[in-house]
Amino acid sequence: MNNAIETHGLEKKYGDVTAVDDLSLRVACGEIYAFLGLNGAGKTTTIRMLLGMVKPSAGEVNVLGVPIRIDGKKPWAQVGHLVETPHAYPELSVRENLELIRRLRPGVPAQNVNRIIEQLGLNTYAERRAGALSLGNAQRLGLAKALLHAPELLILDEPANALDPAGIVEIRNLLSELARTQGVTIFMSSHILGEVSRLAKRIGIIHQGKLIQELNIEELNRNRRRRLLVRARDMDAARNVLQSAGFSAVLNSNDTLDIKDDAAIRQPENIATRLVNAGHPPTLLQVDEEDLEHYFLRLVGMTPENSK
Amino acid sequence: MKNILSALWGEYLKARRSKMPLLTALGFAFVPLMGGFFMIVLKDPEMARRLGMVSAKAQIVAGNADWQTYLGILSQGTAIGGIVLFGIIASWVFGREYSDHTLKDLLALPTTRSEIVLAKFFLVALWSAALVVLVYLLGLAIGSLIRLPVASTEIFWQSSITLAVVAALMILLVTPIAFVASAGHGYLPPMGFAIFAVFFAQVIAAAGWGEYFPWSVPALRSGMAGPEYDNLGFVSYALVVAASIVGMVATFVWWEWADQVY
């Protein structure tokens, strides 16, 4: 088995609405795969189909080499999951909620409950009723339930939801460590590219139910638009110098020159030399990389302006 | 079905940590208390009036202050109260997973959905049966306390069997409620179903067709409509069992086959 998750032509229709359309995914064993999309793009529906909670209208799902069918053998003993906002039994304590899940997963040792409480920093809240937890701690409890049995595959829907910045870093490190030291495969959904790009090796982008791009982190970095920003005392003169040298310098709304030519971006020092020699030394010379959110919005056909 | 005990332990823990066992016990305790009140009034209507327990205008139900009448009231109370109270238990046990959005944690586990559903049915049945035992024991205590005249073993035996049969029929009828809670995604639809069931049970029994309506059968068996229904035919019992099987199969099928988006 090379792939922990495989889908072929996966489709889900609710009446006339197609939530997921012809989705074919491959997540290799040991890989951290980020499944990126805006709200309503079809991420959660896909995750529910992977977990057998929703039946596909067409197509197939294989998880850990097992086809997901109602009447078939299921791979759930090796899978940990977190679907949408985590919920727990409000009148049970954190420990009792975990103990309940542990018993429903036969063979998981009792000490795993303590270990996971410790690992997710829930010690202080272990005896507290789950109904009294903050959103961030409820998220930690949801992650604890997913990780309790040390699964081979984690399917996590927006794992960083409701966590504070320190919590996000902590969970990112924890997931990264699990993948690195134990070879755990992680399939995680998110709507924030910046967040997943620090963790994932591969990213699939889903928009309106379709997988519009699948790329690894190196490709992502290559695909992002880059430009050289230049400022000088006399902007018009500087622009003329650069344009006559064959560069496509354009004055942008921030009163800065934008140069998108590859040669300029790769060797900005040449631009500086030309401007200095022409008597218009640059006051600013900066290679600017398109930020991940802009890149993501550009891919799904939205500019930051029209997405507001 | 090897994980059924773990699933049952989980269901028991959820119930034990909630206020529902206490609330349903208090609700069902009303049956023997109400029966005891009637017995006191029937025993000495004049004293009851003097003490202000009933108004001078009260129409006291026909009957005698004896064990047979009192145990009959317990059976009838179980038949009517059971539809609502056992319905509340099934609504809570099944519907809470939807209302609390905890269902999604139960769907992709090595313990199968069928094991979880079966554990829930076991819990509902055990819980309901425990309430009936409570009603019976409380009834015996209250009956002794108000000094009902000594009755023959035969009367106790017959009345106890009637109560047990009525309770068993009522417990069988919770399965459609479990299905409505699952398909209706919460508490309210099954509660509505239970209230409609009580209503139709009365209307259909009054129209004389009660033998053929499952939710009327326990009340008829309890003697509510008179002794002519003491020996209900096989069809009446078969209809209750059929309704129960339909409800149970529908619940299993729903948990396994329906899209679960809660």
Low-confidence stretches of chain A: none
**What is the CATH fold-level name of the largest domain in chain A?**
Rossmann fold
Order of helices and strands of chain A: EEEEHEEEHHHEHEHEEHEHEEHHEH
What structural category characterises the helix and strand content of chain B?
mainly alpha
Mean pLDDT of chain A: 92
Q: Which structural category do the helix and sheet elements of chain A fall into?
A: alpha/beta
Strand content of chain B: under 5%
Q: Kindly report the spatial arrangement of strands forming the biggest sheet of chain A.
A: 7-8-9-4-10-11
Oligomer: heterodimer
Poorly predicted parts of chain B: none
Count of domain modules of chain B: 1
What is the number of helices of chain B?
10
Q: Considering DSSP H and I runs of 4 or more, what fraction of the residues of chain B is helical?
A: over 70%
| Terminal CA distance of chain A | 44 Å
The major pleated sheet of chain B works out as:
none
Helix percentage of chain A: 25-40%
For the sheet with most strands of chain A, the description reads: 6 strands, mixed
- Percent range for β-strand residues of chain A: 25-35%
> How many DSSP helices of chain A?
11
Q: Count every beta strand of chain A, where a strand is a DSSP E run of 2 or more residues.
A: 15
Overall shape of chain B: elongated
